[in-house]
Amino acid sequence: MKRYHHLFLLLLFATNCSQYILLLLASPETQSQRDFHTLLKLKASLLGPTLSTLPNWDPAADSPAHCSFSGVTCDHQSRVISLNLTALPLRGVLPPEIALLDHLVNLTISQTNISGNLPAEISRLASLKLLNISRNNFTGAFPVIYPGGFPSLEVLDTYNNYLTGLLPANLSTLPKLWYLHLGGNFFSGEIPESYSEISGLEYLGLNGNALSGHIPDSLGKLSKLKEMYLGYYNSFEGGIPTEFGSLTSLVRLDMGGCNITGPIPVTLGQLKNFNILFLQMNHLTGPIPATLGLLLYLEALDFSSNELTGEIPATFSQMKQLKLFHLFNNHLQGNVPQFIGELPYLEILQIWENNFTGELPESLGSNRRLIKLDVATNNLTGLVPPNLCASGQLEVLVLMENGFFGPIPENLGRCNSLCHVRMGKNFLNGTVPPGLFNLSRADMLELNDNFLSGKLPPIINGDRLETLSLSNNQITGRIPPSMGNLLALLTLSFDQNRLSGSIPSDIGKLNHLSKLNLSGNSLSGEIPSELGGCGSMSLIDLSRNNLTGVIPDEIASLKILSTLNLSRNHISGEIPKEFTQMTSLTTLDLSFNNLYGEVPRQGQFLVFNENSFAGNPGLCGTPSHNASCVARAGANANSGERDPLCGASAKPFFLCMGSFIGILIILS
Ligand SMILES: *[C@@H]1O[C@H](CO)[C@@H](O)[C@H](O)[C@H]1NC(C)=O
Ligand SMILES: *[C@@H]1O[C@H](CO)[C@@H](O)[C@H](O)[C@H]1NC(C)=O
Ligand SMILES: *[C@@H]1O[C@H](CO)[C@@H](O)[C@H](O)[C@H]1NC(C)=O
Ligand SMILES: *[C@@H]1O[C@H](CO)[C@@H](O)[C@H](O)[C@H]1NC(C)=O
Ligand SMILES: *[C@@H]1O[C@H](CO)[C@@H](O)[C@H](O)[C@H]1NC(C)=O
Ligand SMILES: *[C@@H]1O[C@H](CO)[C@@H](O)[C@H](O)[C@H]1NC(C)=O
Ligand SMILES: *[C@@H]1O[C@H](CO)[C@@H](O)[C@H](O)[C@H]1NC(C)=O
Ligand SMILES: *[C@@H]1O[C@H](CO)[C@@H](O)[C@H](O)[C@H]1NC(C)=O
Ligand SMILES: *[C@@H]1O[C@H](CO)[C@@H](O)[C@H](O)[C@H]1NC(C)=O
Ligand SMILES: *[C@@H]1O[C@H](CO)[C@@H](O)[C@H](O)[C@H]1NC(C)=O
Ligand SMILES: *[C@@H]1O[C@H](CO)[C@@H](O)[C@H](O)[C@H]1NC(C)=O
Ligand SMILES: *[C@@H]1O[C@H](CO)[C@@H](O)[C@H](O)[C@H]1NC(C)=O
What we know:
This is non-specific serine/threonine protein kinase. The chain has 668 residues and is mainly beta.
């Protein structure tokens, strides 16, 4: 106790509060008075954006006033034993006087804007068990702990501040510490070897710092450790210590994204209580140890984005609790074993970007739990398993870039939970289940590059659909006017199919539509002038169809259109003069149509070369077209009503020559 009185005297010099004289008297009442004044000092230091910070810390309240302050808990002697300032609009700094609250057991200051250093005096709080300063703006180094400091500290949480320097070194002297979270700061340097001496430690959070060096093997001595978080922003050398196999109490280990190399230690299979094992985004190599199949209680395993090789071990069939299974972005191969389909709780399976071969288990999804399935970019084959949406909650279904064949299961059209459907680049055939075009939650439906046939359903709906791609299939029939329902649509790709009929004018309702590709079909009729209403359009490709009529002037009102491809149709008429004002247009292809008249040579048209206009015998005004304009002058005479400049007579011919010479002058 003497030590602490000494501290108070020191503090008297630091403050000008005459009230502190009282503390020399040792009665409980005066001690409680001291707590009162300390809290007022605290209030004055924690300036908020307004003066009304901590408004109900009212010194005029009935005595003991401070015990009615919000966030304050007193014992029967009106001493403050707990202070909790969470999610309050506080700024300012924490004053060293906080150490005067010498009966404090719990101190939580969380989710405020308090900044500055953590005062070193705080380690003098002899009763303090819980120190939680998470989610504030504290800066500087963690203070030096006074010899014998924090004698009662059990829980230290500094998560998400701006603390710098080395990790606090003397924590092994804290006899009762079991919870240590230093994550989300800017601590650098190595993990102190001495942390392996904090023998009661159950929780160790060092994630999200700037730590480096080797992870000490000796951490394997922390036999009570249940949770360990070392990943993210840290960048260690070397690998996972095999000694971690001795952490027999470990339930959760997260070492994601911290540059670790080498193999996954076989010894991790000894950690029978494992519930969560995250090793993703590292440089781990070698096979997945078969011993991990002994982790019978594992619910989440993430080994994604490493350099792992080999197959999914057969022993994994025992991990019946698995909910989340991430192996994506590795070099794994072999089959997706049958037992994966039988895991009773599996919700999320992501194994994309590997070299898996063979078929997906037919039973996949039959557990009625599946939420997310992504097997993209493997060499999988066979039929799409029929029960993927038996859960009624499948949200993500990504099968793209594999060798799946056969039909898309009809019941997927009734899977209203689907958000993301990507089955492009397979060998799927048959008709698309109509329900896939009526998914209320879906934002993406990609079925491109398959052999799908049949017609589009008359009813198309989807308030959230942003991407709809059927490119490169064998879809026939018309584009239904109900496309106009897809008000969130950004990308519409129906190119390279066998669609016929006209382009529905309802597409003009799609205000957000940015890319429209209908190229390579058999669409006929005119280009709807309503397309001019799609103000977000940046790309229109209607090439290689059977479109007729003229280019609607309204297209020129598309202010951010950068690509317009109308080539290889039967479009006639002149190029609208308004197009010269389309300053965002960088790619224009009007080739192989029946356009006629003069190619504008002003404004944006200075960007385009003659390839943009080739194969339009009636066009003139470019160097190479000028000649054909002359040669075909007679042929064009009949259709010349809208062709006043470059028709049959000699006068237009001279005008054409005139503009040609004009261009040469401009260019020279
Ligand atoms: C301190 O917090 C712990 C848990 O956070 C709680 O169990 C204990 O009752 C609190 N003690 C006081 C004195 O508020
Ligand atoms: C602190 O207060 C917040 C909200 O005011 C509450 O959610 C939290 O549980 C409290 N913490 C402790 C340790 O009492
Ligand atoms: C902290 O400050 C930021 C902006 O400076 C503000 O947006 C935030 O609401 C503040 N937090 C609290 C808990 O007052
Ligand atoms: C605290 O940090 C947050 C997040 O970086 C920042 O938005 C806020 O402005 C900071 N508050 C103060 C008072 O510096
Ligand atoms: C610290 O306080 C925050 C906010 O109240 C809470 O979310 C967090 O769980 C606390 N930490 C500990 C270790 O109790
Ligand atoms: C704390 O660590 C510092 C430097 O690492 C050392 O000088 C000091 O003696 C240590 N204090 C205690 C109490 O262990
Ligand atoms: C990542 O690990 C490798 C191999 O251990 C090491 O050479 C490299 O320095 C580490 N990178 C960083 C940023 O620490
Ligand atoms: C798949 O295997 C091929 C051939 O063995 C190899 O070139 C390719 O890199 C592998 N892909 C992955 C993702 O491992
Ligand atoms: C997977 O398919 C690709 C392309 O068909 C091929 O290059 C690769 O070698 C195949 N890999 C395996 C492991 O079969
Ligand atoms: C789909 O392809 C398979 C062969 O891969 C073929 O047997 C079947 O008839 C095709 N179905 C349709 C509807 O084209
Ligand atoms: C489209 O979905 C809605 C709601 O999910 C449903 O009520 C409606 O019957 C469906 N329409 C068609 C044509 O499938
Ligand atoms: C265009 O229509 C004609 C007949 O009207 C047909 O012969 C031709 O195949 C069609 N071309 C395309 C690309 O659909």
